[in-house]
User: Fold this.
Amino acid sequence: MKYAKIGLLVLLSALSSIVVSAQGSPDYGSGLKLNLNNEGSKFVRFIFWNQIWVKSVKNNPGTLVGGESADHSLDIGARRIRTIIHAQISPRYLIMAHFGVNNQTFINGGAPGTVGTGANGAGKKPQIFFHDVYNEYAIIPSKNPVTGKVNKGSLYAGAGLHYWNGISRMTAASTLNFLMIDAPIFNWPTLEVSDQLIRQYGVYVKGNVNKFHYSFNVNKPFATSMTPVAGGPAVDNNGNSKAAIGGYVDYQFLDQEAQVLPFRVGTYLGTKKVLNIGAGFFNNKEGTQSMTLTKVIKKHDINIYALDLFADLPFGPKEKNMALTAYSVLYNYNYGPNYLRTTGIMNTGTVDTAFKGLKAQEGPGNARFLLGTGNIWYTQAGLLLPKTISKKLRIQPVASYSLKNLEALNEVGHYYDFGSNFFIDGHNSKITVQYSSRPLYNNNKVFKRAGEWQMQFQVYL
Assistant:
């Protein structure tokens, strides 16, 4: 572990010195956009990006990696490889497609059925799939298509596999401009359970009324079929799933944010002055099931609520381009009695059945308790340091904290992350380094902690 940390720091230092001496690239501008008329109101836009991760992980007790007992593990893989294409060929119509792959490691994340070695070995040839595919119609456009004047209100309606979700700003987070290295994941409350990577098929409306911005949706959740255990917790089993409804409304006190695509910015790096307060909800009737000791099935509604605050505020002399970014959100989750879910991002570990020590209740590798019935408070903040430190390489130290008070656990969990973004050309080219510390549970109580170092190399065009 010590040598892995040293290696990461040496690599970062080398990259930093290269970046400082480089001339950099021209400003990104409007990106890869093909205008279909002289005004640019009809266009096709392409967005490409990838996020490559290097991870050094202190594994949970009782972990195998590649069939071998492993206290620590090192991995280099793809967190995201994505493409977006969206087109506006009239003032009224928009179509959007978003596809790619996620979480490919040296040992998992590959195409279904790929095991062993050779051309189709473990982790190879991951499946490309659609993340978003939807159509949208402008009932009341943001701008009058005849006069070009900005309307005080707008209303758009769309349908498809979409990302116009409640319950919080971060539930619709853009993956291109996170403040931290990634989202905390519990901001996506149905992730890979009753959705397809956060998305469900449905219909939505979005728009604004003066400084109030809104989106509401009615979706059809994907089927879930986990079998409850007598006397056990609620599990994801929605049978013939009922409609899910959700929404989010925020009031934008200062600069107004773009609403063409659903993706909410994590940090503007001093280019906007933003202060928003928002609230959202999600409801799915009979989304989970539990079983009594007498083996009677009970169905439970999923109800989730959130309140959040986002600030991105430039300060100090203009030439220094300093900015403070902060976000705080409180989630209240109710999935039914003692519902609990775990996750491990790009987790390369499997269970060591021969391990005789105290195992982590969360499971192997970097698994952690993600969310459950209860409350989670999450806060993150970052400071964009002045240009006087480096005019080319911009530095932004960041930190976040999660407090998880979950019904199924006997002890509150405290999760910490800290690190820094190193911007070569804003978010278009950046390196992020982060250390994360997580509690480990046994018998519903914390018995130790573990951590992991992560480094991300991101480019998007």
Remarks:
- The CA atoms of residues 56 and 74 lie 5 Å apart.
- The chain has one domain: 2-460.
- The two ends are 35 Å apart (CA to CA).
- The longest strand covers residues 297-315.
